[in-house]
Design brief:
The complex is a heterodimer of chains A (341) and B (76). Chain A has nine helices and 15 strands. In chain A, the strands form four sheets. In chain A, strands 1, 4, 5, 6, 7, 14 and 15 form a seven-stranded mixed β-sheet that branches. In chain A, helix 5 runs parallel beside helix 6. Chain B is globular, with a radius of gyration of 11 Å. With 76 residues, chain B is mainly alpha-helical. In chain B, 59% of the residues lie in helices and 0% in strands. The longest helix of chain B is centred in the middle third of the chain and has 15 residues. The chains are: A alpha/beta (341), B mainly alpha (76).
Chain lengths: 341, 76
């Protein structure tokens, strides 16, 4: 038995939490226009303070379980990929197991990954399900970047949105196996980092712009170097691997993590891809971390997925960490976007 | 060289005439920032099929230095 992607749902803060980068207070009008043109992010959504990313993932998972009438005792695993867990410990996945009414026999744990987290998560959940013959599994992936970003830090403030996703995976006799390429490179650990933790301690002292060690640091140039050099290699590897068995394989679409327009365009150019084959949700939602790939899949709607599709999914970022997956989808259910008020 | 100068003009959205001797990280014609860096890398990739690294830009002083580096990479 293999594993198939059965359903995808996503939840985001409602429209009233939308912030336009065209009004960002620390840039001039010309700089804002240029930012939107180059980075491609016009709007972002920062949800209310009392919402954690697990609330978005919970809403998305509930939507799948209810709308598709999934028997909750058939869900044998829930993995929560996040960098903004409810607590430092215990794992939020255990709370989600209870909130979602899943049995005590459910495997539940968190994975600390960001933008590569959805594709890594697919590899983790599907491998365990296959090994243990689990009927249904839930991969929940999402972050609340609004909680880790200093609003007056120009290098990070305009990039991210809060979002959560849920992906139902199911055992299926006819499904084709996923093809993977998963990687890591700790030499780039400092490229995307929140410094606070048990190594550096928890220093609450803000600097002159109000930024603390609890806030996210980004090195944009280093991320560009990493993405443009590594991602084309990883995608090519998976596609060539698939074509060695099936030379006529056509890829319908490439779902890249949504980080930055100019970065994704350059990766596409290296791979010789047309932009029409690379769906984007950057303009409306910006970088939604590990939820960006499912959110972009959802943006194409049910009709697109009514047809059998060969799709490449590629997540990359914090770690550094990156993973590409080739999946064949059939009858994948796309649920309506949930907007939390 | 003209192609590279066009890459610069587009990336930095500058109107002034740029010359090959321009010390591009330290001049009044260009406001050098991370968006400019990203766009320049993208433009050079598109025009020359060469991916510039942050270190390549750090080690280049003038536009001509960068041009020579691109030509070396292009040959590889």
């Amino acid at each position: 038995m293999e594993i198939k992607i059965s359903a995808i749902a996503c939840a985001i803060p409602s429209k009233r939490y939308e912030i336009s980068n065209l009004n960002y207070h620390l840039l001039t009008e010309k700089e804002r226009q240029r930012f939107v043109k180059v980075v491609g992010i016009e709007n972002r959504r920062w949800g209310p303070k009392n919402y954690c990313s697990s609330d978005y993932c919970y809403a998305a998972a509930e939507k799948i379980l209810k709308d598709l009438n999934i028997e909750r005792q058939d869900v044998g695993i829930v993995v929560y990929v996040t960098q903004t867990p409810d607590y430092i410990t215990p794992a939020t996945a255990c709370s989600l197991q209870t909130k979602l009414g899943l049995s005590n026999g459910t495997i539940a744990f968190d994975v600390n990954l960001g933008c590569s987290g959805f594709t890594y998560g697919l590899m983790i959940v599907s491998s365990i399900m296959k090994n243990l013959n689990i009927k249904h599994g839930l991969l929940l992936a999402g972050d609340s970047p609004s909680k880790m970003i200093c609003p007056d830090d120009k290098t990070t403030a305009m990039l991210f949105s809060d979002a959560g996703s849920a992906c139902l995976l199911s055992l299926d006799a006819k499904a084709k196996p996923f093809l993977y390429d998963c990687n890591s490179d700790g030499t780039g650990a400092g490229t995307i980092m929140v410094k606070s933790g048990y190594r550096n301690g928890f220093d609450p002292k803000p600097n002159e712009i109000g930024k603390t060690d609890f806030n996210l640091d980004l090195d944009g140039a280093a991320i560009m170097d990493f993405t443009v050099s590594q991602i084309p290699i990883s995608v090519k590897k998976v596609v060539e691997n698939a074509r060695s068995n099936n030379p006529n394989l056509e890829i319908d679409n490439y779902f890249f993590h949504q980080a930055n327009k100019v970065v994704n365009d350059t990766v596409a150019s290296r791979l010789g891809l047309k932009s029409a084959n690379i769906p984007s949700t950057l303009r409306e939602y910006g970088n939604t971390s590990s939820a960006s790939i499912p959110l972009t899949m959802l943006s194409l709607g049910q009709e697109y997925f009514n047809t059998k599709r060969n799709i490449i999914l590629c997540g990359f970022g914090v770690g550094l960490s990156w993973a590409t997956i080739l999946a064949e989808t059939e009858n994948l259910k796309i649920l309506d976007l949930v907007e939390l008020d | 060289m003209e192609k590279l100068i066009e890459c610069f003009v587009d990336a930095m959205e500058c109107s002034g005439e740029l010359t090959k001797d321009l010390e591009f990280k330290n001049c009044s014609e260009i406001e050098w920032d991370s968006l400019g860096f990203l766009t320049l890398v993208a433009n050079v990739e598109e025009e020359f099929g060469v991916v510039l690294k942050a270190d390549d830009i750090k080690s280049s002083r003038t536009i001509e230095d960068l041009y020579n580096l691109i030509m070396t990479k292009e040959k590889k």
